[in-house]
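Lab meeting, item 3. Inverse folding demo.
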């Protein structure tokens, strides 16, 4: 089968169907473990940019130069069937080979059940990153509704109707890479089902309650590390202490965790950034290159489990309690004292060094920082809703022109220091790397720029609206000039303030974008000045963008202008190909990333699922950090977070299996061993700059 040549624009993305899988025709229900696909089942995303090759047998060849949103392909059920029946399988498996000679691959696989707009619609996914030439199997765990669905009103796993799977997608979820030749070049083969589901999880509704034990663990499952008694906690603690006692500090580290045997640059007594031999680095106070491998939320315990009106969930009495701090209770039993903080943080510093971690990431505990044994970052504020907002706006942002906001920023460190003494200590503490201000704001330009729309919808006295009026008066002089450009009919400038409608004209959109850029500039300038006015030698680490915000020109150009480091939270399987050529040449810190699986009774694998086993999860960690180490801009990777979230969710419902330790403070050994190997070898790996599988 031959197809006409595509235009230059169309060749940005190329899907070559080299061959398809052999086997029985797939019907509903499924009759074979290996899926057999016909040409009619293939639906290519962004079909104006796709070229089909000759059909044969054996494999699919996916090649993307432009990730675009949802670019890739979809496999539909066979002709005559409206859905696949995967109810007899534990997972979907597919072999993936990275054909690129120099680029790391990242790929996600998705399935769905239910109608798109209906209440029963569910989509689940998994992903993988592979180094050049590497081949591995990607697994997508199937949470069957018949096995894993919780009773009505009980938080539980996201489930799919595995008897009615509508499609299988392959794509690069959340694209943040720029268009580049050979961005993704892979072979996808042997799509198959892994038999069979673990029916141990199937619990009759009348037997489901209670489902949480006194240690905060899921009752209806068992695993090797599960705690069954307080003596288990004590025994695990003693075993870990023996392991930590034998551990040695990574040989390549100096007192800061910097590269002891690496190049010696200027020593300033504080952390700074410098581009050295084509790569950005942190430089530690002694002048040594420093790569930041960190963990967020390093605290004794954080989120308790609310009781609400659900006493029946628990296999013990909750009378008189509004919330259940399971980790706190477990630590009291583990350390055999109610006053365990000092012992916990002493062990934690040993743990971090043993795990190859050299940085206390965001939201670390003040007691840990005060020990002075490890560099740390601090967040001065996290979207303070007490500061002026745009009234009626749903954006996670501020009215940056309000005098109260400006005053708060001018006194930010002072106010933060009054709440937390570590802030004042950090001003002269050589272990302080720098400061974040805010986390995952929404500046209003995800898609069409909406911030100025929200400003117009504000009441007349809104500071941002008054600022916009001032700018328009300066540009147009008269209200008639504004009306002509915006195609409006304001009777006066006062009428402009009173009006809350948003014009649709080209003139408005042009002025809207100008004002948006002014607001972004104001935000970053005030943030920078809040730090540099008090601590000119401290690094301003930015506002912790979400991944797709960080590549928006208005935001990254403001970061380049005012920030020392651009921090971005990325929940994807790889960052080796991050951003476009036009992105500013500046240091980048990954402020959050994680991978999770359904394990140890947890209900959700987090924002980046990574297969079936803890080995696959550790593999995902290794490839992510390796990709970051070879990227010339990335100066560190901080994992979110230290501990699994509560089984039934924290205050906002998040209940992810994403920790270095679980609810009982038991480490995930596969992950900690991988982090240690990275910590021991990350400096030579970054210096070499090659995407190879081994860290050594």
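The presenter then showed the designed sequence:
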């Amino acid at each position: 089968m031959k197809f006409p040549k595509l235009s230059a624009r169309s060749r940005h993305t190329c899907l070559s169907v080299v061959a398809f899988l052999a086997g029985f025709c797939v019907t509903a229900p499924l009759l074979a473990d290996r899926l057999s696909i016909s040409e009619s089942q293939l639906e290519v995303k962004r079909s104006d940019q796709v070229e089909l090759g000759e059909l044969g047998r054996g494999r699919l060849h996916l090649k993307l130069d432009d990730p675009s949103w949802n670019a890739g392909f979809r496999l539909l059920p066979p002709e005559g069937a409206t859905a696949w029946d995967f109810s007899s399988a534990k997972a979907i498996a597919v072999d993936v080979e990275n054909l690129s000679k120099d680029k790391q691959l990242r790929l996600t696989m998705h399935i769905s059940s239910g109608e798109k707009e209906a209440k029963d619609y569910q989509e689940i996914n998994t992903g993988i990153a592979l180094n050049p030439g590497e081949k591995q199997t990607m697994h997508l765990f199937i949470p069957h509704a018949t096995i894993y669905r919780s009773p009505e009103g009980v938080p539980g796993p996201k489930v799919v109707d595995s008897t009615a799977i509508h499609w299988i997608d392959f794509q690069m979820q959340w694209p943040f890479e720029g268009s580049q030749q050979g961005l993704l070049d892979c072979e996808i083969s042997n799509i198959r089902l892994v038999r069979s589901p673990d029916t141990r999880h199937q619990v009759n509704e009348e037997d489901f309650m209670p489902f949480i034990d006194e240690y905060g663990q899921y009752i209806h499952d068992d695993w090797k590390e599960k705690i069954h008694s307080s003596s288990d906690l004590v025994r695990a603690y003693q075993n870990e202490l023996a392991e930590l006692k034998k551990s040695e500090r990574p040989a390549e580290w100096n007192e800061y965790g910097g590269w002891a045997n690496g190049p010696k640059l200027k020593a300033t007594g504080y952390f700074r950034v410098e581009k050295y031999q084509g790569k950005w680095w942190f430089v530690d106070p002694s002048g040594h290159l420093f790569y930041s491998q960190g963990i967020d939320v390093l605290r004794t315990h954080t989120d308790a489990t609310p009781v609400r009106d659900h006493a029946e969930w628990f296999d013990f009495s909750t009378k008189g309690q509004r919330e259940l701090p399971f980790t706190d209770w477990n630590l009291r039993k583990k350390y055999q004292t109610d006053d365990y903080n000092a012992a916990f943080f002493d062990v934690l510093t040993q743990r971090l060094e043993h795990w190859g971690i050299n940085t206390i990431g965001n939201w670390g505990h003040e007691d840990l920082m005060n020990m002075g044994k490890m560099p740390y970052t601090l967040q001065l504020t996290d979207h303070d809703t007490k500061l002026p907002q745009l009234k009626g706006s749903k954006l996670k942002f501020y009215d940056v022109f309000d005098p109260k906001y400006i005053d708060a920023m001018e006194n930010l460190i002072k106010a933060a220091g009054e709440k937390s003494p570590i802030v004042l200590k950090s001003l002269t503490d050589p272990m302080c790397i720098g400061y974040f201000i805010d986390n995952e704001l929404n500046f209003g330009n995800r898609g069409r720029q909406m911030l100025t729309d929200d400003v117009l919808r504000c009441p007349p006295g809104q500071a941002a609206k008054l600022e916009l009026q001032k700018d328009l008066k300066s540009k147009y002089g008269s209200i008639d000039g504004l009306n002509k450009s915006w195609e409006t009919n304001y009777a006066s400038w006062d009428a402009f303030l009173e009006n809350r409608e948003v014009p649709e004209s080209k003139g408005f959109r042009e002025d809207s974008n100008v004002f948006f850029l002014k607001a972004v500039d104001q935000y970053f300038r005030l943030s920078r000045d809040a730090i540099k006015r008090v601590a000119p030698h401290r690094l301003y680490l930015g506002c912790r963008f979400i991944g797709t915000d960080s590549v928006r020109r208005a935001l990254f150009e403001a970061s380049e202008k005012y920030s020392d480091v651009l921090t971005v939270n990325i929940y994807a399987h790889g960052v080796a190909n991050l951003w476009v050529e036009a992105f500013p040449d500046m240091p980048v810190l990954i402020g959050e990333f994680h991978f999770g699986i359904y394990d140890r009774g947890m209900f959700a694998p987090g924002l980046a699922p990574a297969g079936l086993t803890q080995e696959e999860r550790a593999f995902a960690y290794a490839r992510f950090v390796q990709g970051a180490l070879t990227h010339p801009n990335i100066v560190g990777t901080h994992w979110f977070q230290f501990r699994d979230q509560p089984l039934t969710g924290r205050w906002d419902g998040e209940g992810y299996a994403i920790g270095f330790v679980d609810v009982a403070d038991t480490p995930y050994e596969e992950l900690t061993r991988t982090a240690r190997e990275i910590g021991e070898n990350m400096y030579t790996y970054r210096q070499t700059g090659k995407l190879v599988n081994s860290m050594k």
